[in-house]
Specification:
By secondary structure, the protein is mostly helical. It has two domains: 124 residues, no CATH class; 109 residues. Helices cover 43% and strands 8% of the residues. The protein contains ten helices and five strands. Strands 1-4-5 form a three-stranded parallel sheet, sandwiched between helices. A two-stranded antiparallel sheet has the order 2-3. β4, α9 and β5 form a beta-alpha-beta unit. The longest helix is centred in the N-terminal third of the chain and has 21 residues. The relative contact order is 0.14.
Length: 263
């Protein structure tokens, strides 16, 4: 997701006042255009099924050992209750899994694990919450998020005089980079003259180095902030301190960056 950070020194000293003047003319679009249920399905079902197949199934048999799950940081929370996981009792957790899947050996990823993930997703996406939940948020937030119109449905209506910047980590496990490509494609279809897409290899949801399967927590990489600063500078007309803006195009582009250089 795109983060605008105003607290860094470079923004405070150089762009703080200018941002107020031009921010209403600039649109920085979040790539999470899908409804919250679609995002949850990707996170819970699709990503974890792929993780089980590509990482845990080392022999490419379509099966994984039931013994792999209790200590697995990704699958465990979706297949075992949190109260049981918190006990760290591997024996009890394994027994629970044996009872659940009816075997002490191997379980099929597509026929057993994926359906279990779908069931977890369906329970979570029912959103029958009466109070805030640390894992999935609060009812007010969920209702608000669920009522939003998908960005893909409206991004084509953005004024051609409004610049659009799309940023996405290529290892974003929360909102896949393919979603951002669809937003960029829509802007191209309507001939929007001023939109820029930058993707970042090896960066996750928070623009911090992360594996494909989950987001690591950490500060936004400086070269991401440099790209953001250059784009803001170029679109504000405040170019004295935005030398990097010279290589940010003002027409449609799909730059890929790992070192803040737009191609």
């Amino acid at each position: 997701m795109c983060h605008v950070v105003y607290s860094s020194t470079i923004f405070q000293k150089i762009l703080h006042e200018k941002i107020r003047e031009f921010i209403s003319q600039i649109s920085i679009i979040y790539e999470a255009y899908r409804l919250i249920r679609n995002i949850l399905r990707y996170q819970v079902v699709d990503l974890n099924s792929e993780y089980a197949a590509k990482v845990l199934d080392k022999n490419h048999t379509g099966l994984i050992s039931i013994k792999q799950i209790p200590n697995d940081p990704l699958l465990g929370p979706y297949l075992v209750s949190s109260s049981l996981l918190d006990t760290n009792n591997t024996k009890a957790i394994t027994k629970n899994l044996v009872d659940k899947f009816g075997t002490t050996g191997h379980i099929n990823i597509q026929k057993q694990i994926r359906p279990a993930l779908i069931q977890y997703y369906e329970n979570q996406s029912a959103f029958n919450l009466s109070k805030c939940n640390q894992i999935r948020g609060c009812p007010v937030w969920i209702r608000s998020e669920s009522s939003l119109i998908p960005t893909l449905s409206v991004i084509g209506n953005i004024s051609k005089s409004t610049g659009v910047l799309l940023l996405n980590g290529e290892n974003d496990s929360a909102t896949p980079v393919q979603q951002t490509f669809l937003l960029q494609q829509r802007l191209t279809e309507v001939n929007h003259p001023d939109h820029t897409l930058i993707t970042y290899p090896n960066l996750g949801h928070d623009f911090y180095p992360s594996p494909q399967w989950f987001a690591e927590n950490g500060p936004i990489e400086p070269y991401v902030l440099a790209d953001l600063y250059a784009w803001l500078g170029a679109h504000s007309g405040f170019t004295n301190h935005a030398a990097a803006a010279t290589h940010l195009p003002t027409t449609t582009s799909i730059p890929h960056s790992s070192n803040s250089t737009a191609k």
